[in-house]
Amino acid sequence: MENKVFSKDEWLEGIKALQSEYKVFVPVKAGDFHKFVRLEEQTIPDLDYQNTRLSPKSLVYPESERMFEFSTDENDPDYNILKEAQKDFGPQAIIGLRPCDAHGFLIVKRNFDNPEYKDPWWVRRYEASTLVGLGCNEPCGTCFCSSVGGGPFDEEGLDVLLFDLEDQYLAKALTEKGSTLLAKLDGGSEASDKELSKAEEVKKAAQEKISSKVDTSKLADKDVLELFNAPFWEDLAFACINCGTCTFLCPTCWCFDIQDEVYQKIGDRIRNWDACMFPLFTLHGSGHNPRSEKFQRVRQRFMHKLKYYVDKYGNGVQCSGCGRCVQFCPVNIDIRHVIELMNSH
Amino acid sequence: MLEYVDKIRETARKLLDSGTVEVFIGYKKGSVPMMNEPVLIKDPDQADILWWDSNCALNLCNYLTKRKEKIGILATGCNSRNIVTHIIENQISREQLYIVGVPCKGMLDHRAIKRAVDNKEILEVSEDADTITVKGRDFEKTLEKKEFLQSNCAVCRHRNPVLYDELVADLVEEQEGVDPYKDVRAVESMDPDKKWAFFTRTIANCIRCYACRNACPLCYCPTCFVDESRPQWVGKSIDPTDTMTFHFLRAYHCAGRCTDCGACERVCPVGIPMRQFTKKLNKDAEELFSWEAGLALDQRPPLDVYRPDDYNDFIL
Amino acid sequence: MDNPYLPYPVRIEEIITETEDKNLKTFKFVFLNPEDEEKFSYIPGQFAELSVPGKGEIPIGIASSPTEKGFVSFTVNKVGLVTTHLHNMKVGEIMGIRGPLGNWYPWEEMEGKNVVIIGGGFAFTTLRSSIVYMLHPDNRPKFEDIIVVYGARSPGMLLYKDELAAWEQRDDIQMHITVDATDDPDWKYNVGFVPTITEQKITSSENAIAIVCGPPIMIKFTQPVLEKLGFPPERIILSLEMRMKCGIGMCGRCNIGDQYVCKDGPVFSLAQLKKMPPEY
User: Fold this and answer.
1) Testing the interface with C: which of A219, A282, A289 to mutate, by most C Cβ within 10 A?
2) Does the complex come out with an ipTM higher than 0.90?
């Protein structure tokens, strides 16, 4: 696989040219934070950023998605028959996502793309996506990717990895998809040994800058019932306000709700992100709720990420260490602290 | 406000030790800068984890709803007004509470502080009486606190608790001559199209996480109208109509009850200024009913009572 | 790509009001496309999502047996938005069925054994499917004794009354029908709660497997009775209910520990459940 070097201007020009073949998504500054938007004429990509406020999961798995449409008009020959909503699953390129967020897609993939069922929307969009990652020269104080099987320059789940070498990007193709994308870019030159070793230095320096570490290796061997019955959940949950901030910002939370909406005689079946923090999530029609108490919902979120997922897939925790929930939980419930509590129980 | 910490710990220890209260609700220092975690302690030996600084800007009244024990709780001006509202609305009884009043000089707007350092990552924060010093990897900056108050705190007229059993410090001077509704008037003066554009822009980033609702002590309904399924009042997607309906109806539901504590804006992960909606209704309550929420235990909110001289100009 | 969320269109063929309070109705559906019936090949114990366009979907156990051809049936309790709307629908209307979903009763393990079926209230639906399936001449020789304890609050709340009466007449199935209470002087069956009747009528766990389906309270009190009779937890089989949306283990809400009730269940042995968090 090739390694190419682009000047930053060359790179930005290049990705603009990709628009003829891909829907291109880039981070932009929008007010106080960054978010991914579709690259258009007026878009100013900003790759000089730490991370987007919301993870790029919505580019594969939108917060609200029309699944089916139907007519509720009894005179319509297709009355009440659901039809898949027509959508564009053409190639898309996500430029500049962080390695933790690419790792997030792999974690979620085990849910949406499994041997028994494939989620048609997630799978088609994911397969149509070329993920061009941007290594983190300056990881945040809350980043703990290296504790959960990733790293600031981790390549897993990416098609291309970019190294920011001050005035240049070194683009390392990691998959066929990545090579294909790079081949479509004008300019650039084969990376020299000097540039390659500079990239290695940048990577090494970044890895050393990760200051937040937590041990997730013991979780698999813990007894699930002992953790479930641990005494710390109620105290831990006290501050929680049961909002969806942690789950909605998280690159690895995938839960959803399905709702029908009808306007006049046209109906849609829609799926929306949902959150295990909401009491309604598990409320039975009878009124019974297996997780009626706040601490049960908080316990569910962390047990799911740190134990159930670990046991179910045998492939690590359901967390990519991006630190969004740590930074933005309104009441400062810190998953790193929860891992420590679980480790010490 | 750091000088309050020792006094808060001492008071909590005393109250728990003497059995005056069974639990004490305050804050502990957060794991990231400008974040603190609400905490409930039961043991006097835990008192040393209690903390206070200019980032204790959630509303602790939120944690009182329907609790059964005898509770000690810290209360700033706005928090105490919400406690009053909670008592009036039968969410907690006065007898259960030992209110430790915290005279407040305003909480800091963490977003404005981040903006002042170009949204670079702040790794360390320290504050003294008038300034806050923020440090990152390659910067250090000292800022005047009064320039970086949360926007609700900047226009606060009730910094001192209105209901308390004891104070952690002397009362502070109230701000005189503040104009809390300047921004509301600006919106009022817009023509309908502009207003609509303003509203649409305001909620555009909303992800329907309900952090604003859940951080609000007024939002204690067992089932919120957005969660009702029979009938379903609001769609659940991020369609702007539904999102706006949520914010507007919530604001109306808070009319005459909101203390402008700012918790809703503080917790929003995407920075939506939803106080633009609640403040309009605060302004109406004040202008039409001469009412500010939570100032007295013996008066019910205006939308809760009927008086023959109530404002009725809207009746044609 | 196959879309596991897309329901098969069906027509309501028949609606039977089962109980005196009219809150339970059985719906018989016919597939609009005959090939869909082939695809909807199920085993007793499985469920499906009934899809009422405009209202949503609900997971309901399949009450018909795969030995009954040409239709599928479901007995639906009127509780929420979708079920209330469904109860107001008429014969001939079009809606959807998505499935079959979930696992099934352990039929291979049950072969050559005495099968004890214990059901309460409206949870009898997949048990009805199982009984019809076992009584089919092709299947009956595979099982030893079939013993059924089925209870409801009152005689008028029993499901499938005609079939119950017919099964009572047969000698290849032992029926123990019971009601919590009744003032009907003509009531000729048992009076008493399901756990009590189980204790009286089931005498042995020898070479037997028990399938229990009912409200949580019934399950809670039947469990010790079965354990006292010597049923090991591996041979006590339960079917669970949970709030569900996707039905295929993706939407995340119906988990008990690392198991999704919709995909890994709804059928679990007590031995399995004992290893899972008690959160259901």
Assistant:
1) A282
2) yes
